[in-house]
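Subject: two folds for Thursday's group meeting

Dear M.,

Sorry for the delay on this. The cluster queue was jammed most of the week, so I only got both jobs back this morning. I'm pasting them in the order they finished. Each block is the input sequence followed by the predicted structure tokens. Could you check whether the formatting survives your parser before we put anything on slides? The first protein is the one we discussed after the seminar.
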Amino acid sequence: MNKPDHVMTALPMFALALSGCAIGYNHTMFGTKSNFGLDIDSKPPTAEVSLARRETAIAPTFENGQTTPVMASFALAADAEATFPMFAAYSSTFSGGDAAVTMAALFTSPEIGNPASDYSSVIPLKSAPTNSILFKTITLQRPGTMHPFAFATDTTAGLKIAWSGTTGQYPDTIRFGVNRKELALAPVFGGETHGPNGITYAAHMPSFLATVDHSGGAGLAPGLRYKHLQFFATGKAADKLALQPGVRAAMAARFDPLAKDQADRFMQFRTAFQDQTTLVEASQAGFKNATDADKQKIITKAVELKLVPAGTKPDAFSDTLSDAVNTKDAGVTSRLKQLKDSLPK
């Protein structure tokens, strides 16, 4: 068994001894690390110039091979206009729970997902599962209890030099190129339920979703192109984001090379999503800084453009305008632009 194997084997017991958290029993640990370029790090000791991708999942497995759902993707393409080849176009998705099921079910669809559809990641069981570590009985987290949920990402596109103070005057981290780390440590809850075929228990873990979609000709000449879109959400926010084609585009646009038509459509939807979101944010900022009289004029114009319903109050305008984003209707972009252009100067 090599060193990584030893580390992974020891993690559940180590975590249990420290906090009662048993990874692989009542918690799911899911992590990835991607690198394209130079990566020198003292934590853990790393020195590589490579294209590397590492993925790890430690999760409980229940009867009939059922396990908590997680899903990740990473795609990278060289940018012909980049001065340095290390600056590439890349995309990444990282998800778990209901959000992972939603991403998997809809990744080839350019349509907005139906919130009423069932993308549940609940695991049906015939009885409450138990196990033991070091003579201690391990059960799933019970309803009515609280447990921490850790979820984090770290993205670098370019040059990063960092000091922690433990290595004297020398940096302990040097990265050049693309580097992405993602980690989730999620509790798994279980509770009694009533269902067919003798189902009396169900297990479930919280949703999480993180995406990044980056492109840019990192040249040194004028006219530098650079785009970076990133999402990070948990719970219902993650579930609802996963329904949006612009969010799933970070996975689907490069996930299936055979689905070029779907990828092209996703790029169109992603562009519409970004454009509409930018216009909404500009109008919200203008509305916030407007006088009361101008705010009413903005609302009147938004109603006229069918972006908000009649009777919308000033304190609800910004949230209501967010609902106007609709990548299925190309006319929304034009109407949002008209609203932005009509803002008081």
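Second protein, same layout:
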Amino acid sequence: MIELLEKSLDELQNLFESYEIPKFRGKQLIDYIYHRHIFDFQEMTQFPKELRQWLIEHCSISLPTVVTESVAPDGKTKKLLLQLADSSRIEAVLMKQHYGNSVCVSSQVGCAMGCVFCASTQGGLFRDLTVAEIVSQVLLFAQLEGEDIHSLVVMGAGEPLQNYDNVLKALQLIHEPTVFNISYRKMTISTCGWVPNIYKLADEGLPITLALSLHATTNEVRRTIMPVGAYHALDEVLEAVHYYYERTQRRVTFEYILIDGVNASFKEAHQLGEIGKKFPNCHINLIPVNGNEHIDLYKPSNENMNTFKDIVSSYGLSVTIRKEMGDAIQAACGQLKVAHGRKEEIHE
């Protein structure tokens, strides 16, 4: 079957031409899927009966099933637990920001990075998501909200740069004017520091924002809380990120999770400031660890977090403490999936 959620307008038009179907039907089909949210070919009544039958026989629109929908009390954060065709489950989050709707998507089923503070890596990596499975997360929120999606972050479960080809193709599709028309400048890819593909992404020449999950200022601590650090030393990761900045001139974001007694000392705040000042216009996003019954880690006191922030800011850097929008609905990576239980998830 031809998966339509993996086809650009040009690809659809070329496909239709190869079957002697008029090219203009491609744009109509894009409109049905991404703007009118009609996924049943029989309901695409602008098409002649013969074309609808051809679509039924040759094509598919693979949308996941919504298992659970959780909404924060203030209505600003919504999380979906989704089941894919093979019964794997992933999560996606919608955040209503002052500038518009932002969607956070997953890129893999599970994760191989092993970060101790992340629930999504507890079961390890099962597989990469397809292009369609990534695009469908955005499409479902557009359908549910009936509103445009303003921006996109690939920051859910998985290491996006391990699933490089599918993630890049999905972002290119989402960027298309006839699809979601989301600017590359409103897209962010978060990586633990998968060095070879940081260089590869830099050479694509796309103005996508890179967010590095830094989370430590020394190799010793980073390897303790992020096993990926055993593959790429911190200096090697930072060198790749600097190359990305030089090639794209895009402001780099450093994500730094604050874990009491692990990486949140004031000495480490100074070390983080020293790292940050080597990256012009970078932004440092401090994240209080989202501890719960599955992750026995704790955030520092508000006083200590604010002092940590002030120290880093003293190096002339842009620093924020992330607002904890999703705590009430377990919106951190993997938490809803863990809370809902794995017994119904079957990998075949």
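Two things I noticed about the second structure. The longest strand covers residues 89-97. The mean pLDDT is 91.

Cheers,
T.
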